[in-house]
Structures are given as structure tokens and as C-alpha cells.
Fold this protein.
Amino acid sequence: MIFIVPMCPDSNRNGVKMSYNSFRLSDSNPGHERVLIHMISMPTSPKTRPLPRIIDKGKEILMATKTVPKSNWSKAGVARTDTDVVVVGAGIGGYVAAAEAAAAGVGVIMLEKMKNVFEAPPGMTGARGNDTAKSGGGWGGLFPYPFPENSSMNRIIKAGMKDSRGRAFPELCKAFWSRLNDDFFWLKDQLKLPLKDRSTAIRPHTYVTIGKGPKTARFGLEYAKKKGVKILYRHKAIKLLSDNYGKVIGIRVMTPKGLKDFMAKAVVLATGGFQGNDEMKLRYLGNELTVGAPLTGSPWNTGDGHLMAMEVGAKMVNMDSVHTRWCTGKRGINPHRNIGVYGIYINQSGQRYVDEAGASNETSLLTAYQPESICALLIDERIKNFKIVSDAIKTNRFEKNGELMRADTLEAVARKIKVNVTVLKKTVQDFNAAVNPKKHTAPGADPPKGMKRTTAYRIEKPPYYFLYPVFPGLNHTTGGPLISAKCEVLNNDDQVIFGLYAVGALAFGFMDGLYHITEMVSGLELSLTLGRVAGEQAAAYAHGRKA
Ligand SMILES: Cc1cc2nc3c(=O)[nH]c(=O)nc-3n(C[C@H](O)[C@H](O)[C@H](O)COP(=O)(O)OP(=O)(O)OC[C@H]3O[C@@H](n4cnc5c(N)ncnc54)[C@H](O)[C@@H]3O)c2cc1C
């Protein structure tokens, strides 16, 4: 913060303009020293005195800014560095792209605005780091390996297209999804990311990183460093630089020492979603998701990459798409997969509003549009005793932490979850009447995919148990610049913006609802694949421009 308060008329002494000025410069103001009230000498000629100097009663005491040798200035008069490829953002999308480009033999600088990828934003303690660090480190939804024949993928995509109202880009989905397995096994078998196998008969090839999100974040950064990537923290990219033909030729960055232009042959944007930017959320997601879906993803992801891409003419797609997850009120734990699908979700009007067998992303998303954007997850004694359910209750300590509550009657449930008793009773009655006991899935099995409620069990055996409130958490937005199958950013005429690539959650827009409807791919996997593609392509482009 800088206050400049002229306090006396200018005077002119020995050819130097004088005025009193008040400066209050904070530590976070790069390139400045902390000073109090002094006089400042204004240069009469920029040649003799390149910068304003602060003086006190005619005595020079402090330089307010640091000079940069003129030879290092870009044309705009800003300090400059040259390299082949600049990657912006040090999550999984960014570090994979950076490492792959470096492995292809080009110079790579990766810029990250945090002081490290686990930093807590000012005033927030529970929300550390970027999305990669905050993730569960789960590698689920992988297609069975080896990749199934095209027809099954076509079927999935066709179904997903219907659900996404035709807003996904099926050719891009096919291009990237067909690499997911190979890229994952590259990470597992060649890079040797430590993984635990969590496969089941229904979900083969499901893994979790040992050490979850933090390990996934750290592992990739170490790998990128080994490959020769230079990582610069507290470097916030603010503007893409283009030449007269619209080619991207670098990026302007706020560094701890002030502005700097990183001139490069290619720039890869990997800045995540815009979930940390309320103004953008209101504009693209609307009030319900802005207010009704508390942030579970990184507040550091403020849509900087979106805004920079838009400024150079990128075509933005599916900006209203998001990735949400279920959260319990106290600790934000997702109870859906092992409890929710067997129970019923009740909104604040006392009604069901969603097919509970749907995916966590999709079912939780609908909750944002319910009264007060919260609900209760209700089960009965019989369901509570299913092994899969009781294990989940125990593992997540829902009873110990007072999150799973108990009531002997539906009247008591209604009182505790603040809904009308008659409405709740009718909701449960209607649901029970519709359940066909012959179509139950065996308890203990993983819930099947799809919209059909094949995990329906009557809610009829007291006591009743419920988690309340349960709400949708906003992990990250998924809309952003449209990319080609080479991760090049396209403009509004569907032409490539040369020199610009996008990866990670910033670039998931081509999938639209396929991301949350099918749950066939997850964020880490997709970011890994996009990162590999972009890294290879950006390096090749940089090589070409070198020649
Ligand atoms: C709570 C949670 C749980 C999840 N669990 C899973 C899971 O188990 N499995 C799974 O597959 N997916 C999961 N996901 C999704 C997955 O984590 C993301 O899709 C993935 O990490 C996205 O990676 P990214 O590189 O795009 O973003 P990030 O990892 O968020 O990285 C973006 C980086 O860009 C930086 N940045 C932003 N703007 C600038 C700028 N102007 N200049 C410089 N740097 C900038 C940010 O600081 C950040 O470090 C989860 C997400 C969340 C939030």
C-alpha cells in the first residue's frame, strides 16, 4: 500500500524539485523498502537521475526502488529474462508439462505465485496449498487396462454427451482419454510414484498415492527439478505478451523484486480453476454456487490464467462447469460413495431431489440449488449395519465426532433437521413404496455406476441415523480456454494462438459435464495427460522456432 500525500508546495533548490511525501510501504510491496515520512527529490533529467530519491531535510537516506541494468530491460522498460518455455503454475498440470518439456531438451522456467505449494492464504488456516496438494491423491476411474475397444468408449461418450446437453467436445475427450492409462502407468512404473492399489472387481486399476495429495504435489516438483526445470516461487504471472501477429512471446510477472518479463518461445498456462475469485464465480456460476458451495479447493486459484487467455482472444468454453463433492458440516468429509448411495438425501423442504446412486460430483452439485444449499443424509438401522456403511462410519469417525446423529422416530429426525414432519414422513413413505427389493445390489459391493437407483433400500427400521448438515463443496471450476488435441489454446475463430498452451483444471472445459457425470476420469489423471501432451508440444514448438 502506498500513500503519497503532498504536504507543502513544491520548491526548487539546486535544480532539484522538492516536495514532502508520505510513504507507507508494506513488506509485500516488492522492490520497496519500509520508510516513513520524508521528502522526495524528483529528477530534473531522467539521464542524470534515473529514479526518484528519498531525502530527509536535504539528506539522502533511502532508495525506494531498485534499479535494473538497462541492458536487461524489455522494450517496455521492464526487467527481462529469456528462456524457451515458461510454465505458469506448479500443480500437477504445470509440473508434468515443465518436466516433459525439459526432458525434450529445452530450457524451462516454472512460475508459481505461492511461496511454496502448501502455503495457506492470508487469514485462512485450513485451506493449504494448491488443488494437487489438497487432493485425496486418488487415481480412480481409470479405464480397464489394456484400453477397451473403441466401441465401449463411444458408448460412454455418447451417454455423456446426452447428459451434458451436447456441450462436450467428443473428439478431444477421445484423444485424451485414450492416453490416460499409458500416462498413468508411465507415472507408476517409470517415475515410480508410490501408490497403493485400491482396485475392486467393479473398479479395477484404482490407486491412491501413498501420502495422498501432499506427496503427489512434492513428488512431481522433485521430478521436475531433476529434469532441470527452474522453479521460481512468489512469481505471479499477470499478462501474456504477444507480437504484432498475435503470437505469444512471453509473460509479464510480478516478482519479489518488481515486474519482470519472461520472454519465451512458448507459454504453458497451468493456473487451475477460478474457484478463488468470487467475482468470476458470480459471473459464470451464478449466486447459488458462489454462495451455496463453500470452497474445498484452493483459494489461490483465482482465474488468472483464464483472464490472461481471454485478453489474447482465447475462446472460453463451459465456464459454468464445476467439480463439486459432498462434505459433512464439521470436517468436510465426503460420505457419498459408501453411505450416501445407500441412503436418501433430504433437502430443507423435507423432500428428496436427486438419484442418490449418481456420482458424488453430480449429486452434490444439485444440492447447491436446494433451499439453503444443505441437506440431511438419512439411513436406518439396517443400512447402518451394511459392512460397507459401518466401515465408512468407523473409518471416518462420524459417530465419535458427533456428525452422525440418531433418532428413534421420523418426528425426531424432522425436528433435528428442521423440516416439516408431515412432509418428511410422506417423502420416506413414497420412497419406500417405490423401492423394488428385488433390484437391490448386494450390500458390501461397490455402488454401480449410472443413474438408476440400484442401491435403493427402504428406510423403515428405527432407529434412524443421519448426517446433517451435508453440503456441496466446490473443489474447482472446470471451464476455460478451448484447446486443441495438442493443448494449444484456440481463439474465437477456432484458430491456434501460436505459442500458448493450457493444461490442468484450467483446460478441462472440453469435457463439460462429462467430468462429473461419468466420473470416468479424475482431475489428477487428466492433468497428467494434458501436462505430458503440452510439455512435448511446447518443446517441439520451441525447438522449431530455435532452428
Ligand atoms: C479437495 C480436493 C480433492 C481432490 N481429490 C482428487 C482425487 O483424489 N483424485 C483426483 O484425480 N483429483 C482430485 N481432485 C482434483 C485435482 O486435485 C485437480 O483436478 C488437479 O490437482 C488440478 O491440477 P492443476 O495443476 O490444474 O491445479 P493446481 O494443483 O491447483 O495448480 C495450479 C497452480 O497455479 C498457481 N497459480 C495460479 N495463478 C497463478 C499465477 N497468476 N501465477 C503463478 N502461479 C499461479 C496456483 O498457486 C497453483 O499452485 C481434488 C481436488 C480437490 C480440491
User: Anything to note?
Assistant: Residues 523-546 form the longest helix (24 residues).
